[in-house]
Amino acid sequence: MNAKPVLMIIIPCYNEQEVLPVTAPVFLAKLRELAELGLISGNSRILFVDDGSSDSTWDLITKYSREDPHYIGIRQSRNRGHQKAVLAGLMEARDRCDVTISIDCDGQDDPDAMNEMIRLYLEGNEIVYGVRSERETDTWFKRTTAQSFYRIMNLFGAEIIYNHADYRLISSTVLHHFADYGEVNVFLRGMVPLVGFRSATVAYRRKERRAGRSHYPLRKMLALAADGITSMSILPIRVISFLGLIVSVFGVVSIIWAIIRQVTGHTVPGWASLVCIISMIGGIQLISLGVIGEYVGKAYMETKRRPRYIISDRTWEPFRRVYLEEKGDAAPIDSTSENAVK
Ligand code: UDP
Ligand code: MG
Description:
The protein has helices at residues 20-36, 57-67, 82-93, 113-122, 140-155, 172-178, 188-195, 218-232, 235-263, 271-304, 319-327, and strands at 7-13, 45-50, 71-76, 99-102, 127-134, 164-171, 199-205, 311-314. By secondary structure, the protein is of the alpha/beta class. The chain has two domains: 7-217 and 307-326, Spore Coat Polysaccharide Biosynthesis Protein SpsA, Chain A (Alpha-Beta Complex), CATH 3.90.550.10; 235-304. Helix 5 (140-155) runs parallel beside helix 8 (218-232) and helix 9 (235-263) runs antiparallel to helix 10. Uridine-5'-diphosphate (UDP) binds next to strand 1 and helix 3. Magnesium ion binds at residues 104, 106, 108, 209, 214.
């Protein structure tokens, strides 16, 4: 049998100083348990990704990493949102482990599902999706909006797994290929299935947040849905073209009808119907322009090729040295200078 896989648990954290002290030990206990069960290597790690928090989240992460070597952390240079925080963690982990599991830091996703995830991985699955089996602890509003989210997404052609959020296992093999997906508009739930490879799902019960509050109000959920659809599919543009076609056919028919009425001398004062038609077409045009604009905007952002994340600190080595080494420029220019590397 091969050596046991090195696991990295990737945990995005944004202003989570209340919940981190509660959940960090839970994740460590889980890592220990998995190692003791012989499912993973003892060299496995918990990788926190601080998404540019403004509270003391990063101080907590550095403190944990000093207390136990199984905790490590990276910090984004500013807040970039959950998706990019997870992406930064995945990319950071890809060469340092065999398999990753991404999970939120608020304790809503059940860490016990990891046992099954790792088992499925050892059986040859490269991706294992955590799927929520029930949502009774969410409020009615959150549950309904979240469920409509998946329905609408699938309706609009973004292939995503029903009731799967961002709790998933991904092997480093998949991550290696995933790194080739260079888009700036990151929507992991839609992108990961596109990589392919053998996958499986694990059902788990979604719990309540252990502390702190949600960073996903309705506004952000709607933005995520719009982002998801427009970055995964061009169906909305097709729908618009189709709509345009129908409206045009309708327009031609009404013109013919109007001419016939005119010729046969049945003209009536058609003010109301005219206003209706004009406003209807005006509305459709504005919506269509908006949707097309959404895609133009996306294309614009993509052409800029801006970095998707920037890591400003790592708990395990001084950032500057890593940067210089990556640039291949670590050798001193002047060996007599004070700063020369001895
Ligand atoms: N998060 C993040 N950056 C953000 C917002 C959230 O890294 O800009 C993290 C957050 O710390 C948590 C996860 O993403 O670990 C999910 O966020 P949250 O629990 O607020 O969302 P909900 O579960 O309510 O959808
Ligand atoms: Mg949450």
